[in-house]
Amino acid sequence: TDFKSDKQPTWCPGCGDFGTMNGMMKALANTGNDPDNTFVVAGIGCSGKIGTYMHSYALHGVHGRALPVGIGTKLANPELEVMVAGGDGDGYSIGAGHFIHAVRRNVDMTYVVMDNRIYGLTKGQASPTSREDFETSTSPDGPKQPPVNPLALALAAGGTFIAQSFSSDSQRHTEIVKKAIEHDGFGFVNVYSPCVTFNDVDTYDYFRDTIVDLGETDHDPTDYDDAKGKILDADKEYQGVIYQNDQSVPFEEREGLTGSMADIPDGAPDEAMDLVREFY
Ligand code: SF4
Question: Any idea where the Thiamine pyrophosphate enzyme TPP-binding domain is (predicted)?
Answer without folding.
Answer: 44-191
